[in-house]
Amino acid sequence: MTQPARIGKYDIRRELGAGAMGTVYEGFDPVIERRVAIKTISAKYLAEGSEAAVNRFKREAQAAGRLQHPSIVTVYEYGEDPDQAYIVMEFVEGQNLRQFLNAKRRLDMLETYGLMRQLLIALDYSHQQGVVHRDIKPANLMIVGGLRLKVTDFGIARVENSSMTQAGAVFGTPTHMAPEQLMGLPADGRADLWSAGVILYEMLCGQSPFVADTPLAVMHHVLYAEPALPSAIDARVGHAYDAVVARALAKRPEDRFQTAPQFQAALITAYCGRPAAEAVPPSNPDPERTLSPEQTARYERTGTVGARRQLGPLSKTLPPHTLVEIEASLTRAIGPLAKQLVRKAASEAHSVDAFFAALSENLPSGEEREAFLARIRRLDVGDSANLAPLAEQSGPPVAPALAAVFDAALLARCEKQLAQHVGPLARVLIKRAANDSGNVAELMHKLAEQIDSEPERKAFLDALR
Fold first, then answer.
1. Which of 108, 159, 213, 398 is least surrounded, with the fewest CB atoms within 10 Å of its CB?
2. pLDDT at position 53
3. Collapsing DSSP states into helix, strand and coil, what is residue 59?
4. Which residues share a beta bridge with 12?
5. Which pLDDT tens digit goes with each residue over 360-392?
6. Structural contact between residues 136 and 195, judged by C-beta atoms closer than 8 angstroms
7. Percent of the chain residues past pLDDT 70, beyond the cut
8. 81, 83, 124, 135: which one is catalytic?
9. Rounded-to-integer distance, Cα 433 and Cα 429, Å
10. Active site annotation includes 135
């Protein structure tokens, strides 16, 4: 088939891919001068009146067209001409997740969390808009600009109140289809979360949870077999992930995570090494709680703290006590993972506002994100000139601090006091915190965060002063 010179108002530059139904082209919008991707459905299907295929094509435009989110490929326009129907969408230059995983070394846990976080935030938004994707798989997830993820291909999505959903129809990819989809039953957002669970398993283990020689055998495994635990496939995967994957891949929708924020909260707690039963963020954290002047002073007197390690120019942009408050505020919301997320966001942010926004994206719900941003925006950010892009700031990166060697008597005191609040687990928590702390102040902070009650946290810190 000859490549067209134009489709609608768009100049056609090259073919990106072709399938049985149509072709995808790179195009150019001459009016606003931007590259676009144009997905077509061939004249053959239009001429033969293949209503189901055409309706699926229109459904993609309808579903994706109502979604405006940075982690979802944007649809600009749907059009028809005598030769074809077409969808004009955002041009994404990158590779899909399947290509990315095949070409890259195994992802580390923070990279896995980062990609899953973006996927779950996108799914939460989509579900809130009444759109269920129904075909979440690596080929439909684009990786761009490092580790930024975008969801694409809403061709079999279900839109609430749409008359274009076929009852009993089975569409999708068997390896990533939820059991209810395989049986032709109604599927809601929990089916997308099941598919996300398969993707998590692939990132953790380097293989599919349902391996078989034929599509029919794969379907049988999805319906009736329990996959091997991730920790049994790869000993580097913590046991906390076993429970997360088991819940994500539960056969019955009611036994799974019911929402994407629930799934994200479970991932956070698994990363931090907490039991899966604790995988629910605090329902009512104290939004006004800040460190006391005495606690802040202790951080500053003892030198570098977790929030200031590996921050590069940002450590010169924000006052030291503000960095302490930011990490403490995020830690209260998501646990010890906060320290690494602060470091990562600071290394990538181009401004203080971008730094704040990147941190807020780690909170599972919109309400929690808004509350977190409201808290940290009230903090002292120093001279207003410091709100210029971080790339314009000078100064070498701060070298990471080494873990301190703590006095045995101090650790014994800490264990005795902490045991009053958490029981025998105190010894394990002490060892973990000591191995990951650079000074006494950071050690105390880590231990205090293991205590749920604010009055008990204060009593613990007061007893060790």
1. 213
2. 64
3. helix
4. 27
5. 887 766 777 888 888 888 776 655 334 333 333
6. yes
7. 73
8. 135
9. 6
10. yes
